[in-house]
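Allow me, if you will, to draw on your knowledge of protein folds for a short while. A protein sequence and the structure tokens that stand for its backbone fold form the material at issue. I would ask you to consider whether the tokens describe a fold that such a sequence might reasonably adopt. Thank you for your consideration; the sequence and its tokens are set out here:
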Amino acid sequence: MLSPAALSALRNALGDTRVHADPATLALYAADETPKRVMPAAVVFPQHHDHVVAIVKIAAQHRIPIVARGAGSGNVGGATPVAGGMVVSFDCMRRVIEFDADNRLMVVEAGVVTADIDALARTQGLFYPPDPGSSPYCRIGGNLAMNAAGPRAVKYGTTRDYVLGLHAVTGSGEAIRTGCRTTKGVTGYDLTRLLVGSEGTLALITEATLQLLPAPQAVATLRIAYNHSQHAIAAVGRVMRQPVIPCALEFMDRHSLAAIRERGATKNGIEDLPLGTQALLMVEVDGAAEDLPRQLAALQAALAGEGLLEMRGANNKAEIAKLWAARRSLSSAVKKIAPLKINEDVVVPVSALPEFVAFLDGLGERYRLPIVSFGHAGNGNLHVNLMVHPDDADEMARAEKCLEEVMGKVLALGGTLSGEHGIGTEKRRFISQEIDAPTLALMRNIKQQFDPHGLFNPGKLFPDVL
């Protein structure tokens, strides 16, 4: 519970309707997509940048922990509140401040829905490449915090690659501007790239200047069925060694396909797969319409090989949507397997994918756990889902040991703990296995410089100090 003085200061700065401490509102903001729930002491709804400055200064004065929140769609506990702390929701900061089509940029507040940025850009023949799976409802602020990505990252990169500059508030309540409005600029340290992916631990981002690209004229999609996951993964390696870079290269294992089938939908995108399909790739290309046949021919040559059962193409929106239906339905489909999904978005080098996928198959059998793997194979970024029953103590203990082996194998293969979901509360115990002590110490010093009172998203990202 916040002190009366703190609540009064917040209400004076923001207005009564923007400061909530009632149980109903607190309950709504007690969790993100992770199962853990922590009731905050208050939820505040700034309307503009100056409100955020005021909030941080009041928090610093009263030593109130702050957790920034977009749509709450993250699944690593990054937006889980802190007991006695305050959630700063950016729901009311949804303005597009500027859309400069000539210079291919857009300035948006942190609460703007990601898909809306892309939709607006396309009205002028442009597009915003990052495409996280939650883009129809997630907010750009959350994407910035976690450096979100999606299927198009294999060709176009991640959120960080499209941020020209930021307006933000540090832990002492100072407003800062980073970056510039041009695609080239090397003045000073690159604080923009530092803040993107910092999970709300360094500053509260209030607005971003985003780079846009010319929208591709045409898109074509291939769905490729294989009789074994190793044959599909071998094809991924061949694709990534040839010159044509697809704009999406997605993998689904046999457990993914089984989950989609068990969901019971008659039109789920895999109802017409050939008999014996044990793995699926979704490959997409984009660009000038006259160039697509060349790209498709190169990819088809790379995708052909041992274990190929079928290669099906689509060129219009309806056909493409049908082929993507299976991939789009996966997140909800796997939830039918067990009540709790431990979702790890690990990354390994593409050349290590065959060994990693084989390892996961054996691991599931050894620990007697369903492990569903799918994701952005072109980047080596797989979503490894351990499906468990949280009320089964033995199963949860096995899952914990299994998870430790997954992380150990990822790092042994030269990979990294997270490709796009972030660290939050759920992975921070593994951080010291990837980042050495001197580097972690430097990161903690940077955190201290930006957030001298340690109020921004405490208990996230870094492991506990021993």
Summary: The mean pLDDT is 95. Residues 393-412 form the longest helix (20 residues).
